[in-house]
Amino acid sequence: MTTKTVEEQAAAGKGKGAAGPAPESADEGQLADLPWTPTRTFKSGGAIIFVNEVWCKGCGICVEVCPKNVLGLDGRDKPVLLDADHCTGCLRCELLCPDFALLVVEPRRGGERTAAFMP
Questions:
Q1: Residue 62 and residue 64: Cα distance in Å, rounded?
Q2: What are residue 79's phi and psi, to 5 degrees?
């Protein structure tokens, strides 16, 4: 299964969103405290994952800690969503990222954050 980013879906007319602005299902206020602008946005069944590729050093910790093998690394060693259907929104990728380059928002909880972003 090939998973497209929200940006690719928008370009194909299948979704909304672009690098920077949050997708339609995420409230702008949810990201007001975020000290960076996402360069990639992935929408899955369990969460919306925002990635700051500028901050990401490509260590792969997010890939290793994902219990459902949802994340992978692209050719530039940046996180990509491999299996959107199995993301549980557990936040392990966000909480263990040493670069604070990931943010996970769970739409099933009305976009409520279950963990604080700590810069």
A1: 6
A2: -65, 140
Side-chain half-sphere CA neighbours of 116 within 13 A: 2
Instruction: Specify the pLDDT at position 48.
Output: 85
pLDDT in tens, 41-66: 888 777 888 999 999 999 999 999 99
Q: 71 - beta bridge partners?
A: 81
* 6-22+37-109 fold: Alpha-Beta Plaits (3.30.70)
Q: Hey, where are the domains in the chain?
A: 6-22+37-109
Q: Are 57 and 73 in contact (CB under 8 A)?
A: no
pTM over 0.85: no
